[in-house]
Each structure stands twice: as structure tokens, then as C-alpha cells.
Specification:
24% of the residues lie in helices and 30% in strands. By secondary structure, it is an alpha+beta fold. The chain has a nine-stranded antiparallel β-sheet with strand order 3-4-9-11-10-6-7-5-8, with helices on one face. It is globular, with a radius of gyration of 18 Å.
Length: 220
């Protein structure tokens, strides 16, 4: 028996909602998200003493780019631009809940004071994953991150440019030492906390895995 077109659309919509809820959900399900209602959720794949691998579902983000010689200057401008979007600078004038984390994509092996384009994104909450309001600012866009596996290295404190750079280098060294395949030309700096949080901060660096993730067993 064939389902009427309207019923098929309803089933597809329901499945899309289930997928969204599996990737963006209640922050109580994550140990890292203490300041927002919703957080990026993931499926653990494997873990070593140096890094872990996570599987991420496809998600939609609101994104902007800023070029600067200093990461902190670029991210300050980019953050303000995206914050305006979630506080009403969109076609519906909608106020959109802040989520965690904020991600910053940039090229790897940057020289000190080298001009670089930083791509910052806010995760859209589950309510707006299917049909996010269009940004009013032409420098802001809605982007979709495909499902993927990522290599992750976590660290505490503040996500300053020199620390993000050091952790990126440490993760690259770990991955090279085990022959892992990954996209080497860019990484993500990932922050979960607002500037108001002083203690127990959580940051990460991500590389996108290629092929089967590598997690060598720790010798007994």
C-alpha cells in the first residue's frame, strides 16, 4: 500500500526531527555544557590517553568570517556579529537561544602574526535546525556541517591563541605518531564556556578524520 504524499512528507519530517534531536539536545546529557540549555551531542567512537574520536551528526550553524593577524581580534568581531543574529538580526526578528559549543575554523600551521581568516559558528538550537531564520547581515550565513568523525583533544583554562596553537600541534603530533588519516589543512578551536565562567572551563581542538579512525590500545 502506498502512502499519500502528505503522509510521506510527515514521516520524513518526523525522521528529520529525530535526527536533529540526536545531534542537538539537552545540555544535561553532556558533561561540558553547563551554561546553555542545549548542546552539541555526539557518539563516542574510541579513546586513547592523548585524544578521543567522536561521531557527529549533520547539524546547521550560523556562521561568519573575519580576517586578522590576531585570533582574539577576529573572534571578538565575529562573535558580536553572530550574537546580533541570535538577538534579533534575522528575517523573523527572532530571539534564538545560545547553545554550546562555539567553533572557530582556521588553517593549520599559521605563522605568528600571519593574516588568517577565522570562521566562527554558533550551533543553532533544535527548534531552528530544520528552518532557521535568514540572517539580516550579508556577512552572516546559515551553514550545514556534514556528519563526520573528529579527533578531539580537550584542555582547560582560557582559549587564547597561543594555547589553541599549542594544543593543535600536540594533537597533530599524536595523530602522526599512529598514522591516522585526517584533514591536515584546517582545524577547529572549540569553546564551551562564556567569559563569565572563571573555573572548570572546557576547550577542545578538532581535526576531521578521514577513513577509519585510529585509536591504538594502551599497553597494559
Amino acid at each position: 500500500m502506498k502512502l499519500p504524499g502528505r503522509n510521506i512528507a510527515a514521516v520524513i519530517g518526523f525522521l528529520l526531527v529525530l535526527t536533529t534531536e540526536a545531534s542537538v539536545g539537552d545540555s544535561s546529557l553532556s558533561e561540558f555544557c553547563s551554561e546553555t540549555k542545549e548542546c552539541l551531542l555526539y557518539t563516542p567512537v574510541c579513546q586513547t590517553e592523548e585524544y578521543e574520536v567522536r561521531n557527529l551528526s549533520s547539524t546547521k550553524w550560523v556562521t561568519t568570517e573575519e580576517t586578522s593577524r590576531i585570533m582574539e581580534m577576529a573572534t571578538y568581531t565575529a562573535f558580536r556579529r553572530l550574537f546580533k543574529y541570535i538577538t534579533g538580526a534575522n528575517e523573523n526578528g527572532a530571539n534564538i537561544e545560545m547553545t554550546s559549543p562555539v567553533i572557530i575554523k582556521s588553517k593549520t600551521n599559521k605563522g605568528w602574526f600571519e593574516s588568517c581568516t577565522y570562521t566562527m559558528s554558533f550551533l543553532l538550537p533544535s527548534e531552528h535546525q530544520l528552518n532557521p531564520p535568514k540572517p539580516s547581515d550579508s556577512q552572516v550565513s546559515i551553514t550545514e556541517m556534514p556528519g563526520m568523525n573528529v579527533y578531539v583533544k580537550s584542555y582547560g583554562g582560557w582559549m587564547m591563541s597561543y594555547r589553541a596553537r599549542d594544543k593543535e600541534s600536540e594533537l597533530m603530533d599524536s595523530l602522526e605518531s599512529v598514522g591516522a588519516m585526517y584533514k591536515k589543512d584546517f582545524s577547529y578551536a572549540v569553546g564551551y564556556d562564556s567569559p563569565m565562567k572563571m573555573f572548570n572551563r572546557h576547550n577542545e581542538v578538532w581535526f576531521v578524520a578521514e577513513g577509519t579512525p585510529v585509536c591504538p590500545a594502551t599497553p597494559a
